[in-house]
């Protein structure tokens, strides 16, 4: 059975490209430049491009949720032809292949898989793996349940995670404790992942978990919610409403989720590192607003010609991420700009980082021009 190519919205690729551009180009260059410049204004702005220590939310904290949200937003379009033709077996093969590849890519990026040292491999520690889990959960809900049940079950995941962290107590862990060293998600990751948890080292007295405090296992419930929020946005954009109505619904949904997340944060703080339910709602609301903005600009107002350069990142987002995380281009950059350090002083590092990310951009641009994309 031949499967037709799915419908593709320009705003999806442009927004995904915006997310990856911030991650692999703008942030490393700007932070290095701000540090060298050392002005009060640029130092203040640079604070929005690093994660908060624990509670709270700044611009940089939206990058990972937005990456996951965009994975969900494309699913209603990508799944449509398969579901219409009833080829669920073929779709499941595609889903499982994607989950496996994302998982392996995640271990390459952050799990030390390429080091080939069994003593330093970490099993679950990366954005790509959170996308894989969220994608799997969302795929099952999208394939087997109606829209109403998708909403009910997604809400259930939010509430289950909230209930687990708020009411389940094991020794001094959990029971409404949301600190870095006493929340239930941290406890479960330590017990289940043990030595395979990122940041852990083996000592004579046992496992030292260091200062690493991101959680993954039961946080996967809300990874599913984040990707499903993208699915709901995708369903709005794929629906029969007029384009301006779609923008309005995306904006209304975004505002409602932001308000709900902030209110929920009075009891369960907004904490990205453990992906609290309040943070999940709050960040999903921001993603909805960003989607509304880019859908308005690209698909409604047809300003895509001014933003299409972002597709260079957006249509090869996995490759862009992996090049940034895995390949160190500094040897090339330092060879080209050898001798410039004593002229540029503190700005030399900015030059090297600009050169590194420009190499990545050039690779992506070449592949975009030739229509070559890394598909998983």
Number of domains: 1
Could you estimate the helical fraction of the residues in percent?
Answer: 55-70%
Number of strands: 4
Determine Rg (CA atoms, Å).
Answer: 21 Å
Terminal-residue CA separation: 21 Å
Q: Helix and strand succession?
A: HHHHHHHEEHEEHHHHHHHHH
- Structural class by secondary-structure content: mainly alpha
The share of residues in extended strands comes to under 5%
Uncertain runs: 1-6
In DSSP terms (H or I, runs of 4 or more residues), the helix count works out at 17
Strand order, biggest sheet?
1-2
Bulk shape = globular
Q: Summarize the main sheet.
A: 2 strands, antiparallel
Mean pLDDT: 94
What does this 3D model show about the protein?
The protein is an all-alpha fold and 376 residues long. It has helices spanning 10-37, 40-46, 63-73, 75-84, 88-110, 127-144, 147-167, 184-193, 220-238, 243-264, 277-300, 304-307, 311-314, 317-326, 330-336, 341-344, 348-369, and strands at residues 169-170, 173-174, 201-203, 206-208. The protein has a two-stranded antiparallel sheet. The longest helix is centred in the N-terminal third of the chain and has 28 residues, at 10-37.
């Amino acid at each position: 059975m031949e499967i037709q190519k799915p419908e593709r919205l320009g705003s999806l690729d442009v927004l995904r490209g915006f997310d990856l551009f911030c991650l692999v180009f703008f942030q490393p260059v700007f932070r290095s430049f701000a540090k060298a410049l050392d002005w009060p204004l640029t130092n203040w702005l640079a604070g929005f491009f690093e994660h908060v220590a624990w509670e709270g939310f700044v611009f940089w904290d939206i990058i990972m949720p937005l990456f996951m949200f965009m994975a969900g937003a494309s699913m209603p379009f990508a799944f449509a032809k398969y579901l219409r033709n009833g080829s669920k077996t073929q779709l499941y093969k595609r889903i499982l292949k994607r989950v496996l590849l994302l998982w392996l890519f995640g271990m390459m990026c952050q799990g030390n898989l390429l080091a080939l040292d069994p003593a330093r491999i970490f099993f679950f520690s990366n954005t790509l793996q959170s996308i894989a889990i969220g994608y799997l959960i969302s795929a099952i809900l999208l394939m087997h349940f109606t829209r109403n049940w998708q909403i009910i079950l997604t809400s259930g995941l939010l509430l289950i995670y909230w209930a687990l962290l708020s009411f389940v107590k094991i020794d001094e862990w959990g029971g409404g404790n949301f600190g870095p060293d006493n929340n239930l998600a941290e406890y479960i990751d330590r017990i289940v992942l043990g030595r395979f948890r990122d940041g852990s080292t083996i000592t004579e007295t046992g496992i030292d978990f260091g200062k690493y405090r991101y959680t993954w296992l039961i946080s996967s419930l809300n990874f599913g919610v984040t990707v499903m929020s993208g699915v709901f946005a995708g369903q709005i954009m794929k629906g029969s409403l007029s384009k301006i109505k779609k923008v309005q619904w995306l904006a209304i949904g975004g505002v409602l989720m932001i308000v709900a997340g902030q209110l929920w944060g009075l009891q369960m703080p907004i904490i990205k590192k453990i992906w609290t339910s309040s943070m999940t709602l709050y960040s999903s609301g921001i993603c909805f607003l960003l989607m509304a903005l880019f859908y308005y600009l690209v698909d409604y107002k047809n300003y895509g010609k001014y933003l299409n350069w972002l597709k260079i990142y957006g249509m090869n987002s996995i490759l862009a991420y992996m090049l940034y995380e895995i390949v160190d281009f500094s040897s090339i950059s330092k060879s080209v700009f050898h001798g410039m350090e004593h002229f540029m002083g503190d700005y030399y590092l900015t030059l090297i980082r600009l050169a590194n990310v420009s190499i990545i951009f050039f690779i992506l641009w070449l592949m975009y021009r030739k229509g070559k994309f890394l598909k998983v």
